[in-house]
Amino acid sequence: MRSLSPVSWAAIAFILLACGALAATLISPPPDPADHPLAPRFTELHLSFEAAKLCGGLEMSPSVANKVGAAIDAEIGGGMGTATRLVLISDARATLAAAGCDSALARDALAQFDAELKPALE
Q1: Which segment of the chain is annotated as a signal peptide (predicted)?
Q2: Do residues 96 and 51 make contact, with C-beta atoms less than 8 angstroms apart?
Q3: Contact status, residue 53 vs residue 109, Cβ threshold 8 Å
Q4: Where are the domains of the chain?
Q5: Nearest of 119, 120, 117, 122 to residue 52 by alpha carbon
Q6: What is the largest CA-CA distance in the chain?
Q7: What percent of the chain lies above the pLDDT cut of 70?
Q8: Which of the chain's termini has less CB crowding within 10 Å, N or C?
Q9: What is the pLDDT of residue 17?
């Protein structure tokens, strides 16, 4: 039986380490979107936007969506991925739907929309 050269052993060790790292990556759960440092502010702003749509009579159009989206992006910057944003938007919608339009949460969110996001529509 032939023995392996040191380079072959190094290659085998590298391959085993790479396989271990890949397995650990595939096994580990994805990060929670709520753990993102910008998540609280992003959620707060989208909660106010959802309240304006659901409870405040804001008529949606592509122009409105683009202007409000641009205002939110300007506030939080571009440091958040699309998947994280979508999860947080969905969570904001569910939170508002559970609370209802007569809740203090909805009233506060509407006031925040008027103060922070509505100027982007003017």
Answers
A1: 1-23
A2: yes
A3: no
A4: 38-120
A5: 117
A6: 81
A7: 83
A8: N
A9: 76
Q: Within 13 A of 30's CA, how many CA atoms are on the CB side? A: 7
Give the residue, 2 or 68, on which the prediction is more confident: 68
Contact yes or no for 44/112 (Cβ under 8 A): yes
Distance CA 90, CA 109 (A): 16
H helix runs in the chain, sequence order: 6-27, 39-54, 62-76, 82-99, 104-112
Looking at this protein, which amino acid is placed at residue 75? E
Which tokens go with 17?
A: 């380490």
Helix (H, G, I), strand (E, B) or coil at 65: helix
- Among 2, 5, 21, 106, smallest CA distance to 58 is for 106
Say how far apart CA 119 and CA 122 lie, in whole Å: 5
Checking if the pLDDT of 69 tops 70, the result is yes
Number of CB atoms found within 10 A of residue 14's CB: 10
> How far is residue 76 from each of residues 8, 39, 49, 105, measured CA to CA in Å?
50, 9, 15, 21
Q: What is the token pair recorded at 6? A: 């040191």
Query: Cα separation of 71 and 118, whole Å?
Result: 9
